[in-house]
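Input structure tokens:
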């Protein structure tokens, strides 16, 4: 039973398109972001982060793809 103030937490499901985007984001971070947003600000931020460090590019790409659903 759920008491007052409790919220059911239903996990978000990841679709196959999101899975492919995240998989690409791990290997080539800007490509995964490009598939979702095109040549937008998210792409350019990820490209710069990947240029300065591969890991920050991956972290940002995965955050943008999963965190902003």
């Amino acid at each position: 039973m759920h008491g007052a103030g409790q919220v059911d937490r239903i996990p978000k499901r990841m679709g196959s398109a999101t899975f492919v985007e995240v998989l690409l984001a791990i290997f080539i971070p800007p490509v995964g972001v490009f598939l979702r947003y095109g040549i937008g600000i998210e792409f350019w931020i990820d490209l710069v982060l990947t240029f300065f460090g591969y890991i920050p590019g991956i972290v940002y790409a995965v955050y943008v793809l999963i965190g902003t659903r």
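Residues 54-67 form the longest helix (14 residues). The CA atoms of residues 2 and 42 lie 39 Å apart.
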